[in-house]
Amino acid sequence: MKLVWQRQVATVRDIYETLVRRRKIAYTTVMTVMNTLETKRYLKKRRRDRAFFYRPARPKNQVIGGMIREFINRVFNGSAEPLLVHLVKDHRVREEDLKKIVRMVEESK
């Protein structure tokens, strides 16, 4: 998704060529992921000549929010608390991040 957001429009080949420079990945894997993202309505595709061109279906913040909700529902049975606890214990959340989160919670009351 990040690469499609950066480019605004991309083919499977565009994404594959970018990713393969970073790590070994199969073209069919990229195609499968992009088709899955299109099925989930994160991407839209349009055929032009012999290729499909993909573009974001929704703004980045909406897509990220949907992916996070889906992940929390699937992995943590809909509760974000175990995710937050894991992130804190794994030192993925810094103290200043926690302070920002507390401020955001207080402001949303």
At CATH level 3, the topology of the largest domain is Arc Repressor Mutant, subunit A
Order of helical and strand elements? HHHEEHHH
Mean pLDDT: 93
Strand order of the largest sheet: 1-2
Query: What is the terminal-to-terminal distance?
Result: 33 Å
Helix percentage range: 55-70%
Instruction: Provide a count of the helices.
Output: 6
**Which geometry do the CA atoms define?**
elongated
Helical/strand content category: mainly alpha
Largest sheet: 2 strands, antiparallel
CATH superfamily of the largest domain: Winged helix-like DNA-binding domain superfamily/Winged helix DNA-binding domain
Number of strand segments = 2
**Segments where pLDDT lies below 50 for 5+ residues?**
none
Fold and architecture overview:
The protein is mostly helical and 109 residues long. The protein folds into 2 domains: 2-56, Arc Repressor Mutant, subunit A (Orthogonal Bundle), CATH 1.10.10.10; 79-109, no CATH class. It contains 6 helices and 2 strands. The chain has a two-stranded antiparallel sheet with strand order 1-2. α2 (12-22) packs across α3. The longest helix is centred in the middle third of the chain and has 17 residues, at 60-76. The radius of gyration is 18 Å and the shape is elongated. It starts with a helix and ends with a helix. 11% of the residues are buried.
